[in-house]
Predict the structure.
Amino acid sequence: MDCVLVETIAASHGKQLGCLTLNIPKSLNSLNLEMAQRLYQQLLDWQVDDSIVAVWLQGAGEKAFCAGGDIRAIYQASVDDNSDLVNVSHGFFSQEYQLDLLIHQYVKPVIVWGDGIVMGGGLGLMMGGSHRLVTEQSMIAMPEVSIGLYPDVGGSYFLPRMPAKTGLFLGLTAYRMNAADALYTGVATHAVNRDSHAQILQDLQTFDWMRDDINHGLDQLMSQHASLQPASTLVSHQALINQLMQGSLADIIGRFQQLDTELVWLQRAQKSLLKGSPLSWYIAYAQSQLSSELSLAECFQWELNLSINCCVKGDFCEGVRALLVDKDLAPQWQYNQLSAAASEHAKQLMSA
């Protein structure tokens, strides 16, 4: 099966719309190295093709746009030949981040159909789009704390730029956003109904691609399909989130350890955080403190070194084993709680 489907759709004025489909629905379109390489090369080709006016990026099937990176190959390298782990992890993460950065910097509109599950590496693909569409079926999260990683794929850039303490909350708790949450945080630009998919593509075929302000015109087109979505939990509980995220990392973890709540969404967030890797806590917290003067490219470079270190010296491979390989959901983290030793270890992971 072709892991990425490539096609062009006729548009107005003799132009074409490039359509890319992540095509491994059985794995929820999780991004592997081959997919990242093919997407990257096709986007480069289309960027200099004058007949292509925009790119439509979607996932096959109804369950997911992309559920994250297919990171089992990295775990397998740690089992088969640990000496090759640096090369394998560098190969995957460098290609993934180059792809994400290209989408962010693309000179043509990139319209992302973020329907279904959008997690981790899927969010990395989505965030670079000029138009990021979500639906009533969208479920969006950065769940890396559960596998001993941290919110990468550009999270160092976009999470601290979310309202108040929302980005830190998302990074520590793996909270699952709905469409309204995604609009509030800037993850999405438009909310539409899932069943509008075919009509939107049809409208794009007749869209006037020669107009002066293409992005404004696309915004107007997407607004025609705007849909009312369930209320945003993040909006209605922003004050509570800010309170929970105040102070030092020790303050935050302590509050969640003592938290007694009847709010189901917060119970889930609490459980995810407290089951996560303490090394990931330190990294996600430090990530939220990064200077806003760092460019997107600089954030990706920081993440590349850190992600490799997490594979070689951190909790990442153990997290992948517990969640995706053995599926016992019982990771044996190197530390069970916050400590001076864990803090120093995390600092070493974050050093170049």
